Amino acid sequence: MKIILLGPPGAGKGTQAKFISREYSIPHISTGDIFRKNISEKTSLGVKAKKYLDAGKLVPDEITIGIMKNRLDMDDCKNGFLLDGFPRTVNQARALDSYLNGVGQKIDVVLLIDVPEKLIFDRITGRRVCPSCGASYHIKFNPPKIEGKCDVCHSDIVQRKDDTESTVKSRLEVYGRQTEPLVGYYEAQGVLSKVDGSGEIDQVFQNVRNVLKKYN
């Protein structure tokens, strides 16, 4: 199966991607992971991408598309793959379609993890982390035993800068501008399936399974 995973920040895409990859024996291809690998290996595309990332800018489509094409050419993608974080724009989606058409393939299904905006805010702004040992918490869904203190090392837990209300609002606005148009693009192709992502992790994965059994 060739799958694209879409959804707003805080929808749980990363968690579901790991489950899907394991269940269906296909590689989970994350844009962020690929950027980091190319940068650490100092590939020509990685060097170019690093310049933009270091300057706090978005990596141009042509670089992102080039890096993704190189990854999809690898042997472990021959029997399918799960794309997480790519495509982010309609331009990238068209480039992906063109690449796949050129090798006689196509996307089977685009999974949209659908979560109400209020729940996204609750999920992200409630996250806390221990700066000393890295343990993760949530003030509502996974609170520490002692308020404000890490269960493991008893250090003060903190909220990441990326998890503040203003930052989450900004990230959702970027998602709306860049990524939501993909929903219409893939709906027009008849490959989009919405999955209710508002429940517990296991329930969301069962919802995913119910969609994917049509393609497996």
UniProtKB/TrEMBL annotation:
Enzyme nomenclature, EC number: 2.7.4.3
Binding site for AMP: T31, R36, K57, L58, V59, G85, F86, P87, R88, Q92, R160, R171
Gene Ontology molecular functions: AMP kinase activity
Main location: cytoplasm
Keywords, in A-Z order: ATP-binding, Cytoplasm, Kinase, Metal-binding, Nucleotide biosynthesis, Nucleotide-binding, Transferase, Zinc
Catalytic activity as recorded in UniProt: AMP + ATP = 2 ADP
Domain Adenylate kinase active site lid: 127-162
Reported function: Catalyzes the reversible transfer of the terminal phosphate group between ATP and AMP. Plays an important role in cellular energy homeostasis and in adenine nucleotide metabolism.
Protein's recorded name: Adenylate kinase
Source species taxonomy: Bacteria, Bacillati, Bacillota, Clostridia, Eubacteriales
